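Fresh eyes needed here. Kindly weigh in on this sequence plus structure tokens:
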Amino acid sequence: MRDLYQRLGIDRQAGTDDIRQAIDACDHNALKTDASTVLEVPSRREEYDRLHATLTDIGCLRARLGLTHGPYWRDSVANDFSLPPDTSRPLHEVLLSRIGEAVMLHNRWRRYRGPWLIGGIFVLGFLMGAALCHWWL
């Protein structure tokens, strides 16, 4: 799906007159047709704006994960909602911290699982037996 606002060079909060001027100034016939069909009808524009917000959020998520399009996607309709990768924190550091946290949780589970598992089964059996006795009497 094309980002009609980006392709027309207008803001998402642009008024009806600004949209009409941008559509009239557009040289691309297919874009002009799509924009007039979608953006000039208020109900279609509201639906498009909801979809636009969702695709923008997906583009932000892809950028945060470093999933940008390859060179063959650039300057294509599919690249309208892609953002440059977010390099605020190296992905290697993020991956190492997540792996370290997973290893710590796994080691903690291995250390405590035996006594807690046996004790948990015993307590569960006791509670079920008490509940059955209470119900039976």
Summary: The two ends are 68 Å apart (CA to CA). The first helix runs from residue 4 to 8.
